[in-house]
Amino acid sequence: MSDKTAHADRESPEQVHIAAESSSGQPPRATGSGADGNPQRADIDTRKWHAESIDDTLRALAVDADEGLSPDAIEKRRESFGRNQLSQGAQRTMLQRFISQFDNLFIYLLLVAGVVTALLGEWLDSGVIFAVVLIIAIIGFIQEGRAEQALESVRDILSSDAFARRGGRKRKIDAKELVPGDIVHLEAGDRVPADLRLIRIRNLQTQEAALTGESTAVEKKTDPVEENADLGDRLCMAYSGTLVTAGIATGVVTAIGDRTEIGRISGLLKDVETLRTPLMQRLDAFTKVLSVVILGIAALTFAVGVLIWGRDWAEMFFAAVSIAVAAIPEGLPAVMTVTLAIGVERMARRNAIIRRLPAVETLGSVTTICADKTGTLTRNEMTVKTVRSGVRDIAVEGVGYEPRGGFTSDERDLEIEKGMLAHEMIRAGLLCNDAELVRKGENSDTSFWEPEGDPTEAALIVLACKAGFSPDQQHKDYPRLDSIPFSSERRYMATLNHDHEGNHVIYVKGAPERILEMCASELGEDGPGEIDKDAWMARADAIAGHGQRLLAVAKKDVSEQFEITEGEVERGELVFLGLFGLMDPAREEAIDSVRVCHEAGIKVKMITGDHAATARAVAQELGLKHTDKVITGRELEQISDQDLPQMAQDVDVFARASPEHKLRLVRALQSKREICAMTGDGVNDAPALKRADVGISMGQKGTEAAREASAMVLADDNFASIQRAIEEGRTVYDNLRKAILFILPTNAAQALIVATAIMAGLVLPVSPVQILWVNMITAVTLGIAFAWEKAEGNVMKRRPQPVDEPLLTPFVIWRTLFVGAILLIGAGTLFLTHNDADGGTLDYARTMAVNGLVMGQIFYLLNTRYFSAPAWTAEGITGNRVVLIAIGVCIALQLLFTYAPFMNLLFETAPLDALAWAKCIAVGIVVFVLVEAEKALARAGKHPFARDFSQPAENKANREA
Ligand code: ATP
């Protein structure tokens, strides 16, 4: 459902009649102007524009409202005023970011341990602890920087556009390019791009909460107000950053960038996007609980070591701290942040721009997508194929915007001539129209026609050209005096034109049902006669049955008047002219995407403003599931709140629906626990977009209001991008789960080794500093690799992930104990078999235990790349470059740890021989084989805790049914 107005219904030149000096044809000279006629910056910055008349404002800014600024003036003003941009608010400095890394429970613990060990004179240990703290902080700093950078680059993609009149033409420009004196057109849904003195308005309302905190809309005027009026009372101004909620307007830019009112209020400017998502919050809460439990265990170990085994309390204290640090998954939040940020970046590359971070996760859980039809599921490339007047059914040849092709009726060629009903219909379509057809390309071989504005309207221009009309000539012969723009609620557009001879006429085009309601007669060959509405509805159904989009045209001759109102148009006195049928082909890629969504257990629903029969035909072409029943907006209104949820689930096609219907549908679906993604582009779609679990707006034809309400913007307006974003969302979610599945068991193993030894009164197989080392290098190298993991082959073959799934599923607990135990036994055995045996030393045995542990983790990393698919394939081992790099770095660090003399000194390690390495690697292989065996069991459906991984969406759904 679109407010096509975004492109199409900007005021046309005929509408702007401003009593300024413009009539002289010479741009006025600024009152406080410099030698070149351009206004002086000091003068512009200090004036009270709200108290100035329109004439004075235009004069001061040296601009003609009909012409706009010349390229020369724009250039000069840009030099002296700069760009229309707010300077960056105070951002966190690098130093602040670095310092914030130390603000963390684990770091405090380590710092305390470092100080205590230093006080005890253990300089080496304390040095190592401080070094570890520093390295953890540096790594956190780098990772966070990486994440921030990824999000920043995505944010930059969303620049906003403005419609400005320059050099006599209205143009779409980047809002950053505006300069004082630019003439800007506004309409419902726009964000005001700079501070404007309004010069012409029609029912303009703005919402100025960003500036005044007042959330009710303000009705604007053009008369000047008192000089000392409050910001909220300056009704003739539209301020940068506020939203247009209704109406249209033209204004002249009085301030840009930091000189605007919003620019002056610092602090309000940056809506800081936090890096926390629901999953991360749950994870934070989970880690807190886990930390308390682990601290308890560490304290217990300390007590057992000191009280039962009588060991040195300082040594036990350090051991207890190392247990805590090793067991607590402190690296997890960083892994999450990076994973999410990389997900956001990947989605942006696939045309889905995330505005709110939590959407990344929610996307993975979406169960229903409600999509607009036009432009999202279809190409929005309109061609008129049928012209249906009261007497004839005419077929139109040609496709696309090339104005070439003839007409046939009853399979015979037909010339559209003056006097024919079709001739008047086509003229109505041409005049009641805001689009333009422009020729693009260098030479005649490569040039092509492109619509500027609403494609539906552009198609009517193409039709007129095919029928021999010259659009420019028609606009000259029948100039426009006034217009009512199209909106999805109104479902029609109207214009008032005259023929220079005192004959004024209202042309209206819109949805047939709507137009028929407003008609009292129909035009026959002998003038207006009685209208047969049922016959017209039947004709409309016949055209819609071919999947064509419908448009009706009507007119009304009026006496001399210069304005039209909705009341007059809707009074029911129009003369019906006929129907157009437009073809808008489905997007090929949307057909594929719908299929993929169905396979992934996601329902796809189409909510369109179009006619029911058109909607059904397109839905069938797209392969939607339940197309036998189509509910229209009107029927929807009759359905009670109790019945709606079930119906919303059962029906896939909603026609003639308007934005309020969307809101009701989202609510109904959510009450059935559906996780709903909803698309929208108009200003009135904002509530539904906000309400949806993932509101999706259109980057190309969407309004700023819709964008701001949405969690994600589609850069290409394409349904296929939603499906891809969901795929990425699922991948991100999978990667987060994989990171958890990797980190928890490895952390458990690290801590278990020390804790078990102390509890049993044995020599520690791994010293506290060594544990810190292992924890640090594996957490930063191995754990982080999941952020770059690609989607598994079956991501879109599984049902959606439940949003409230607990983090600690029985499976994760099982895996933690299973892998933790293997690693404990493996490393423990390596230690025990080499300590004191065959002349081995403690250092040597510990070095083996550490390397055995790390090898185990490296192999387990490969296991975890796939939840249930086998990892021993070439792809499984070499498929993720980052995993290979992480493993390479990890091995290099272990070699350093084992062989570098200073490391031998610091960590009390000893160089190993080849056989020892073979044994360490063997531990890794044992882990790998056992976990693969476990996964095979899961694939066979015999794993008591891992049932979910093997079920494809369809089977699962069938089973549930
Ligand atoms: P969707 O909601 O899927 O984008 P849509 O584009 O058909 O579908 P609307 O833009 O609300 O939805 O249009 C509803 C109806 O209004 C159309 O079916 C058509 O009959 C009519 N219409 C569309 N564009 C115009 C226009 N520019 N001028 C007049 N009538 C229009």
TrEMBL record:
Domain Cation-transporting P-type ATPase N-terminal: 48-122
Subcellular location field: Endomembrane system
Protein species of origin: Saliniramus fredricksonii
GO molecular-function terms, A-Z: ATP binding; ATP hydrolysis activity; P-type sodium:potassium-exchanging transporter activity
A Pfam family this chain is assigned to: E1-E2_ATPase
Broad class of the protein's primary localization: membrane
Membrane topology: Multi-pass membrane protein
Gene Ontology cellular-component annotations: endomembrane system; plasma membrane
Keyword set includes RNA-binding: no
NCBIfam families listed in its UniProt record: ATPase_P-type
Protein name: Calcium-translocating P-type ATPase
